[in-house]
Structure formats: C-alpha cells, structure tokens
Design brief:
Layout (H helix, E strand, L loop, with lengths): L1 H16 L3 H24 L39 E6 L2 E6 L2 H11 L2 E5 L2 E4 L10 H17 L1
Antiparallel strand pairs: 1-2, 3-4
Helix pairs in contact: 1-4, 2-4
C-alpha cells in the first residue's frame, strides 16, 4: 500500500508544488471528503481495505424476555458524519474519528484489549477500519488530475 502512495506522490509532486497554498487546500479538502465517503461505505459493509470481511462479532447474551433489536452488523453508527471527520491543510488530507468513538475505533483497528463493562476486559479482534483500497488510490489520482486540469 505505501509503495502505491509513493508512486502517486512521485507522479504529481512537481505539478502540485506549482499550486498556491489555497489551491492545495481546496484539493486536499476534496480528497478528504471523498475518502471519508469511501471509508464510511466500507465500514458499513464490514470490509477491510483488502476486501476481506471483518472478523465476526462474538455471540451476545440476550436477557430473557426481551426481543432482539437490530442486526449483528458491527459499527452501525461509527461511519456517520458526526463521528467520522475529514481534515485537511495545504500539505495533507486525513480522515479520523472524534470523541469516544475514536477510542472504540482504535481498539478494533489495532485489536487491543478493551473494557466492555466495569469488571470485564476483552481482547478485540483486529478489524481495519481505515485504509486505502486500490480504488481509493485511483480516485485520489483522478481528483488530482481533475483539479490540475481546471487550472
């Protein structure tokens, strides 16, 4: 993955250096927004960047007499705009989580131990939430080309 990023960087580095700071800021903002959408879509589908499905949820014990609500799908709300924020400046673009969701995302992304209630800690399965797919890299390259063509 990082080799692909270096390849894109080498291709357009000279062209991007000719842009003003404001133009680079607009470009990185567009890239961050687009990547937020693709990351959210992939998280909704419970897929890793390489296309493999996330590790399944562990069986949940249901209280007796209560009907089960919702599905067993993981991360039902984490992909929403209020939690997943794009960020950009003239030199970089990024997508991240904010608030309590950032801790939950980090625990799942890296497979860390997490406290699920007052007395219980659980080893989480590693589920890559953020990352680039080949399609994402192509989209970033297309956005750069479109922006440079407008000049």
């Amino acid at each position: 993955m990082s080799d692909d990023l270096h390849l894109i960087n080498d291709r357009v580095d000279a062209l991007l250096n000719n842009l003003s700071a404001g133009e680079r800021k607009r470009l990185t903002r567009d890239i961050a927004r687009t990547m937020r959408g693709s990351q959210a879509r992939r998280i909704r589908e419970n897929r890793n960047p390489d296309g493999t499905p996330h590790a399944p949820r562990k069986p949940q014990e249901q209280p007796t007499g209560r009907r089960r609500r919702g599905s067993l799908r993981m991360f039902r709300r984490i992909h929403r705009t209020q939690f997943m924020r794009p960020s950009s400046n003239p030199n970089e673009a990024g997508v991240g989580f904010r608030g309590l969701v950032s801790r939950i995302a980090r625990e799942h992304h890296y497979g860390l131990r997490a406290r699920v209630n007052k007395n219980t800690r659980v080893q989480m399965e590693e589920r890559q939430l953020l990352g680039f797919t080949k399609q994402d890299l192509q989209t970033v390259e297309d956005l750069m080309i479109q922006h440079l063509a407008k000049r």
